[in-house]
Amino acid sequence: MAVIDGTNAVLGRLAAAVAERLQKGEEITIVNAEKVIITGNPKMIKTRWLEKYTTGNPHHGPWWPKRPDLMLHRSIRGMVPYKKKSGRDAMGKLKVFIGTNNVDTSKAEKMTREIRTNFITLGELATVVGGWKSE
Known about the structure:
Blueprint: E1 2-5, H1 11-23, E2 28-31, E3 37-39, H2 42-54, H3 68-77, H4 85-91, E4 94-96, E5 109-110, E6 119-121, H5 122-129
Parallel strand pairs: 1-2, 1-5, 2-4
Antiparallel strand pairs: 3-6
Helix pairs in contact: 1-3, 3-5
């Protein structure tokens, strides 16, 4: 089982790497989901994500996650063929946590990159779109 620390990891790069490893059969636990970042202009990112939440019908969907761990889970799910049995099995081997949740992070992999641009964390984005409050 691999433990990945999401601190300062770029959302798309992290999701793609994790999806590839899940499809190979590896069990993965991601901690600190609220510290995963999305690069770009924070104002534009907030606007784009808020548009997702206002489309559709509140009774019939689409429904989008409003917590950082579920946002990350949904991003990874989009890169796995989750409608097939192999994809469902792969997603069953993924665990995503806010904070460390008593997981041993001494050997956690870091998927960080040097950030030279503007960014927003999933925790900050979740407070804007869903009213999530960090502990």
